[in-house]
């Protein structure tokens, strides 16, 4: 007990070497994710000019070794900036992508259901949703069935999908 560590006196321990390495790898992974983003999404992120320029340079590099070195440089710059706003913005992008994918799957499920079950599924849709063009949907369903039986490309099924997607944009279709 004669020898008390300084960290015990302050109450805060310095992170271990393993923890520092995990943190550095996390920042490097975040840097790689930023480099992989489209320019439109990058413009929406809260990045300073130096970091934006370094990311732009990394995107332009084609040599693997040079690109890896630039990635390390971007990670170094990121360690000097506040990462939480960047993580929050990326989380919002991912949430938007998940919602878009869910909408796509919902519309695809309704299209498949309408094509398989016919008027029964259309009745379910009409019971849960108002303002639907019944005649137009029935016509597309019949055309899609004719195209499928004739082995033609599914143009009517695509049109049905577009019509359902328009309905979903106004108010989400039921699950």
Describe it.
- With 175 residues, the protein is mainly α.
- It folds into 2 domains: 15-81, PSPTO4464-like domains (Diphtheria Toxin Repressor, domain 2, Orthogonal Bundle); 98-170, Orthogonal Bundle (Diphtheria Toxin Repressor, domain 2), CATH 1.10.60.30.
- The protein is 77% helix and 0% strand.
- The chain contains 9 helices and no strands.
- The longest helix has 34 residues, at 84-117.
- The chain is elongated.
- The termini are far apart.
Name some characteristics of this structure.
175 residues, Diphtheria Toxin Repressor, domain 2, 77% helix, single chain
N-C termini distance? 66 Å
Oligomer type: single chain
Q: Please state the second-level CATH architecture of the largest domain.
A: Orthogonal Bundle
% residues in beta strands: under 5%
Overall helicity: over 70%
CATH topology of the largest domain: Diphtheria Toxin Repressor, domain 2
Order of helices and strands: HHHHHHHHH
Structural class: mainly alpha
> CATH class of the largest domain, please?
Mainly Alpha
**CATH superfamily (homologous) name of the largest domain:** PSPTO4464-like domains
Low-confidence stretches: none
Largest sheet: none
- What characteristic shape results from the CA principal axes? elongated
**Tally of extended strands?**
0
Number of helices: 9
Mean pLDDT across all residues, rounded?
Answer: 86
Number of domains: 2
**Measured on Cα atoms, how large is the radius of gyration?**
27 Å
């Amino acid at each position: 007990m004669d020898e008390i560590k300084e960290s015990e006196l302050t109450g805060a321990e310095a992170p271990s070497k393993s923890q520092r390495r995990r943190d550095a790898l996390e920042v490097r992974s975040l840097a790689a994710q930023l480099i992989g983003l489209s320019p439109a999404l990058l413009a929406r992120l809260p990045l300073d000019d130096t970091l934006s320029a370094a990311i732009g340079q990394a995107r332009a590099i084609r040599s693997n070794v040079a690109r890896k070195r630039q990635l390390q440089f971007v990670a170094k710059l990121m360690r000097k900036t506040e990462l939480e706003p960047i993580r929050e913005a990326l989380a919002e992008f991912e949430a938007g992508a998940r919602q878009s994918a869910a909408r796509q799957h919902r519309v695809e499920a309704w299209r498949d259901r309408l094509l398989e079950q016919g008027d029964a599924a259309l009745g379910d849709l009409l019971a849960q949703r108002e303002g639907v063009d019944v005649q137009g949907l029935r016509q597309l369903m019949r055309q899609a069935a004719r195209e499928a039986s004739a082995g033609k490309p599914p143009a009517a099924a695509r049109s049905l999908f577009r019509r359902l997607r328009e309905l979903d944009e106004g108010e989400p279709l039921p699950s």
